[in-house]
Design goal:
This protein is α/β, with parallel strands linked by helices. Helix content is 28%, strand content 22%. Strands 1, 2, 3, 4, 7, 8, 9, 10, 11, 12 and 13 form an eleven-stranded mixed β-sheet that branches. A two-stranded antiparallel ribbon has the order 5-6. It binds iron/sulfur cluster (SF4). The site of iron/sulfur cluster has 11 residues, from loops.
């Protein structure tokens, strides 16, 4: 594992066939979120994502997904017993979770079960790039967990460039499926918006995003791009991020700017890549 100066911890687990997968523990307010991977690599090939460069090696089994949590909890209890509580689970590590639907579904059921972690469903979030075949199964098969959609642009042409599957599963098809998912008055869809310098961080992008999501059960998470070796994209200035949020605020959509955590050890959003040779220890989660 590697520890960031901000106490984020990145783990590299070696699986029984020798492949590796990364998991991240993210501290907040004396508790932790565990960011789990669902696949070794990923087939979606998003151009801003370090994992996408790996290609898809294989799906993780339910045991390998649950095992990641057991592995990081064991480390946490030993290394930081004073604050060893994992309160949230996010499927935002390596892989497109809905491309490995059954294993992700079953692992979430185990986390929720009285015989598992007894975690409240609202403490679990599954993120997707908009993989429609999985979204179509969600309503009938997925437990009542939260959904986060990687939006990144309201414009087809730009979203095609960032998330190539947008050509096959365009936003016009994805949005109605996603919007139908949250249940209960206080539930909403999280829309992740990766801000990339001089690409999707302009005022026209902010206004179009606001117009697209205004009046919906939406929560926007702005993520300033986290650079990784070899990427062509750059991070916007802090002021640009603040200005983007200010425009969204005029549409009265709750919006937060995600604090970057773990970027010094390539553990931040979009930076995971388990094909890099590690200089740190590996344990098997399952
Ligand atoms: S952003 Fe997610 S879906 Fe896209 S390539 Fe990376 S891991 Fe896969």
């Amino acid at each position: 594992m590697q520890e960031s100066t901000d106490e984020t911890v990145k783990f590299l687990f070696e699986l029984s066939d020798g492949l590796r997968v990364e998991t991240v523990l993210i501290p907040f307010q004396g508790k932790y979120s565990a960011c789990l991977s669902s696949q070794v690599g990923c087939a979606m090939n998003c151009t801003f994502c370090h994992t996408g460069l790996q290609g898809l090696k294989r799906n993780l089994s339910t045991e390998e997904i649950v095992g990641q949590l057991l592995g990081v909890q064991t480390w946490l209890t030993q290394a930081r017993p004073q604050d060893d509580y994992i309160s949230n689970i996010v499927y935002m590590g390596q892989g497109e979770p809905l491309h490995n639907f059954a294993a992700v579904r079953d692992s979430a059921k185990i986390f929720i079960s009285q015989h598992g972690l007894s975690l409240a469903p609202r403490k679990i979030t599954v993120s997707t790039s908009g993989y429609t075949p999985g979204l179509e199964r969600w309503k009938h098969e997925m437990p009542d967990v939260n959904i986060a959609l990687s939006l990144h642009s309201p414009f087809s042409e730009k979203r095609n460039q960032l998330i190539p599957i947008n050509r096959r599963y365009p936003l016009e098809e994805v949005l109605p499926l996603v919007e139908a998912i949250p249940t209960g008055k206080k539930r909403f869809v999280t829309y992740e918006y990766l801000l990339i310098k001089n690409f999707n961080d302009g005022s026209e992008d902010a206004h179009a995003t606001g117009a697209l999501l205004q009046g919906k059960k939406a929560f926007i998470n702005l993520i300033p791009f986290n650079p990784f070796p070899g990427t062509r994209y750059e991070r916007p200035s802090d002021q640009t991020v603040i200005d983007f949020k200010a425009i969204l605020d005029t549409y009265e959509i709750p919006t937060t700017i995600r604090t970057t955590k773990g970027d010094d050890v390539l553990a931040a959003c979009g930076q995971l890549n388990s094909s890099l040779r590690p200089a740190y220890c590996a344990e098997s989660p399952a």
